[in-house]
Amino acid sequence: VSEVWLPGTLLLALLGAALRGLWRYPIGGFVGAWFFCILAPSSSFVPLVPQPIAEHRMYLPLLGAAMMVGLILEHVRFRNIILAAALPLLFFATIQRNDVYASEKRLWQDAVLKAPNSARAHQNLARAFHGERDYVSAVREYQAAAAIASQHLDFTTKTTEKLKSK
User: Fold this and answer.
1) Is 15 exposed, middle or buried (0-12, 13-18, 19+ CB in 10 A)?
2) By the 8 A CB rule, do 30 and 22 touch?
3) Residue 127 Cα distances to 19, 52, 124, angstroms
4) Does the predicted TM-score (pTM) go above 0.85?
5) Cα 54 to Cα 47: distance, rounded to the nearest angstrom
6) Greater confidence, 166 or 76?
């Protein structure tokens, strides 16, 4: 709960703003509703167990945010200067993200960097090392994955025992 209350509160505030926007500011409300209506089915109903990296699910919902930025820039006096500054930044961010996807090892190294307590990320990084015949690194990552998985198993076992005792 302590890890999700802040993002959850922000998400609920954005949802509330989108719903209010439908009433008071139809264009802005439409963009907000677009985001949540497109994202909700794949976030809520479709399990992501076989697909741990699903950032492509954000492409279509973020089109609404891009439309909103375009509508705002339409009314900004110095939009050409803003675009001239923003486009190179976006260009280099895209290059960096594509570099992460250049190899399986880089992808999973990025995942481990961003989610160091993910047994799945460590396991898949170990597989990538194994595929490259870097067995020392593979064993290290398998051990990290096993340690994380055993911590989760211990927590689950203790929680189950506590619930059974009540």
Assistant:
1) middle
2) yes
3) 45, 15, 5
4) no
5) 11
6) 76
